[in-house]
Specification:
- The chain is of the alpha/beta class.
- The protein has one domain.
- It is built from 15 helices and ten strands.
- A hairpin with a 2-residue loop joins strand 3 and strand 4.
- The protein is globular.
- The two termini are about 35 Å apart.
């Protein structure tokens, strides 16, 4: 037993050393100045046959040559199929002193803020978007929300390291970050917004989002059945409250309260993620050991480097490895697939791609479910997973 423990400890030490060495390598080779004209990065040919469609908010594979249609910029136009009085009537949310109409809520060029006391004042770029885009701009907070927690179809950016956010915005701008699903429209919107950012706007956006705390936002439930749903804007929305549809090999992430999330954009209402039974135990094994085993006295390597090697034991990240606890499982799964399909080319992307090359779609489900179930550490008391079995 002692020998086994020593062997396992040695493996963990080697994995940790590999992560440290990799981080130091990228730190040492990071350019000190942005090149004037970054070389174009070719978008890889992706495996659409095995794509985790649920992670991208689709239920059918892309047709040959199918691509995303440009997203229309936000506006304050009244919708002809809705009552004008209802659209312009001021609304209130519980716990908020603000008043907004539905027209205000939809106006992504002037992002509403139900709870301004939750954070520092939003910079102009968060509230209004890149000035260079004129009437085609949209505020960063319209998608990522004023609290930075985002939604399953985009990203939760609150609490990410300042340097990491700035690097990702630069990657979008420089053609180093694309979606593995060519139909996902908001990725292209993000690329256009990043290209339009001035240096000051990019820094202001990164400083704002990195200053926001990341707190529990997603409730993970292991289940065989899920509510039937429809997909609107790459987001699953429930058609019923009862669970009648087999979950299959997917994660179904949807709002805890559709009206609060979709109609009012309430940043205090989070999401529920239904995951297949057994996902959490399997995910924990992959995250902490990479699937490695001891068979007698023989060490059997896993199919992947343990996530804790670079993201740390608490999964709160370090350097080029961002914090991943409690983040959207849809987002985590998309990024794992994007890395595998070589549609991300930023710093440390090659290392990440090699690390997860052998993961299957089921492995991706398990890892995404497990890390989503773990809330970030709280200073006052140890964190516990927000998980139930239904």
């Amino acid at each position: 037993m002692l020998k086994r423990l020593l062997r396992t400890g040695a493996v963990a030490a080697v994995s940790f050393a590999m992560g440290v060495a990799a981080a130091r390598y990228y730190d040492a080779h990071r350019p000190t100045a942005k090149p004037a004209a970054p070389p174009a990065v070719a978008v890889a040919r992706v495996d659409l046959e095995h794509e985790p469609l649920w992670a991208y908010g689709f239920d059918k594979p892309a047709a040959p040559g199918e691509a995303a249609k440009p997203q229309a910029p936000p506006n304050r136009n009244l919708r002809p199929n809705e009552d004008a009085g209802e659209q312009t009537r001021l609304r209130r949310l519980e716990g908020s002193k603000a008043e907004y109409s539905l027209v205000d809520v939809r106006d992504g060029q002037n992002v509403i803020d139900w709870f301004p006391q939750d954070h520092l004042p939003m910079p102009d770029v968060i509230k209004h978007g890149p000035a260079a885009l004129g009437d085609k701009k949209r505020g960063c907070g319209s998608c990522h929300l004023p609290n930075g927690k985002g939604r399953p179809e985009n990203a939760g950016v609150a609490g990410l390291p300042l340097s990491y956010i700035m690097r990702q915005l630069s990657d979008f701008r420089d053609g180093k970050r694309h979606s593995a699903d060519p139909r996902k429209p908001n990725t292209n919107t993000m690329i256009d917004l990043a290209k339009a950012l001035s240096g000051d706007e990019l820094k202001a956006a990164a400083e704002y989002f990195s200053s926001l705390p990341w707190t529990p936002w997603i409730h993970v439930v292991e289940t065989d059945l899920v509510p039937k749903s429809r997909i609107v804007g790459n987001l699953f929305l429930p058609l019923e409250k009862t669970k009648t549809e087999p979950i299959g090999a997917r994660i179904v992430e949807m709002p805890e309260d559709e009206e609060q999330t979709e109609t009012f954009r309430n940043p205090h209402v989070g999401f529920i993620a239904y995951v297949p039974p057994g996902s959490l135990a399997r995910g924990k094994d992959l995250v902490t050991t990479g699937g490695a085993r001891m068979l007698g006295t023989e060490f059997i390597p896993g199919k992947a480097t343990p996530c804790i090697t670079c993201h740390r034991e608490d999964l709160m990240g370090a350097g080029d490895s961002p914090p991943i606890v409690g983040r959207s499982p849809s987002y985590i799964a998309r990024q794992l697939w994007d890395f595998q399909q070589s549609t991300r080319h930023g710093e440390a992307s090659e290392l990440m791609r090699l690390t997860i090359a052998k993961l299957t779609p089921d492995d991706i489900i398990a890892i995404a479910a497990y890390v989503a179930s773990l809330p970030p550490p709280r200073p006052a008391a140890p964190a516990s997973a927000s998980v139930s079995r239904q």
